[in-house]
Amino acid sequence: MEISLNIKDNPHRGYLIVEGESDRRLFETYFRKRGIEVNNDLNIIAASNIEVDETVLRRNNLRPHCNKDLIIAFALFCNSENPVIADNIRCIVDKDCWESNPYDNDALIVVTDYPAIESYAFDASIFDDLRILFDNKIPSGDVIVEQMKNKLCYLFSLRKKYSGPADTLPPISYKNVGKEGDFIRNCTNNLCSNSDVKEIFDSLINKNPKSFAYGHDIAQVFKHLYKSKAPNKNIHFSDLELHMLRQLVFSQTLDSERMFLCLNSWLKSIGCFI
Questions:
Q1: Does 274 fall in a domain?
Q2: Percent of the chain with pLDDT over 70
Q3: CATH code: domain of residue 91
Q4: Which helix H or strand E contains 32, and what residues bound it?
Q5: Domain identity same for 129 and 231
Q6: Helix-, strand-, coil-residue percentages of the chain, each rounded to 5
Q7: Which top-rank group of organisms is this from (predicted)?
Q8: Pairwise CA distance, residues 254 & 251, whole Å
């Protein structure tokens, strides 16, 4: 575990382990904006740059090619091998479809408040900022949230119903999300129906929409609902996602979220804030 050796040599430096490169860039920008010297006081590392012994993965029934599982295994290893070093580390993992946080008693593992980092961007203010890309031809942010939330809730309900080791989720096609009729059948090539996920949907729809806005679904659904309004009809969902995350990190919405409050408190405790 090379990272652990580095931490031992730099006991007042924080290490933040995240799932992907887009997550790393978001956190780097966010903390730089708050005055933290990234790569000096705080080192933010994507899961692809950590190494975990396969025995640790097997022992905890975790998958070697899953970034989330690699991070969890790394965190469990650090906790068991050197709790003092673990004080200087926080590992961010997506909540995905978890009902609750199974690592609630583990300070080292920080679970997102919503299914994914992208979920924080499902906010009317972010969509208002996005209107400039569409020459102000799309609705206001409040209207967009209302038009998208049922579709996102159905997709998340579908994921919850089919989540599990068997990975039986029907393939999702976003190209028909704007068509009338059975939304789930449109998105899963008639492999299942709305009735299959209705009970889960009913239990979620009145909650905070961010709680069922699942990662890449946001930009995909947005694109297929509003792409006809875009000056560039070939706009890619990843470009939309990048723009949304960029707007998110410069907004004020993250500062009041539980995960970011916890991270800021941790950074103060290890001396990263002046």
A1: no
A2: 93
A3: 3.40.50
A4: helix 21-33
A5: yes
A6: 55, 5, 40
A7: Bacteria
A8: 7
Residue 3 has pLDDT above 60, yes or no: no
Domain range holding 69?
2-113+257-269
Mean pLDDT taken over the chain: 87
| Closest listed residue to residue 208, CA positions, set 253, 264, 251 | 253
Dihedrals phi, psi of 99, to nearest 5 degrees: -70, -40
The reply to whether 96 and 126 lie within a common domain is no
pLDDT digits (tens, 9 = 90+) for 63-74: 888 999 999 999
Residue 101, token pair as written in the block: 């946080």
Average pLDDT over residues 95-113: 86
Q: Are 88 and 147 in a shared domain?
A: no
Tell me which residue of 62, 69, 64, 82 sits closest to 15, measured CA to CA: 82
Say if residues 264 and 256 touch (Cβ distance below 8 Å). Answer: no
Contacts of residue 207, defined as CB under 8 A and 6 or more positions apart, other chains included, come to: none
Count of structural domains, the chain:
2
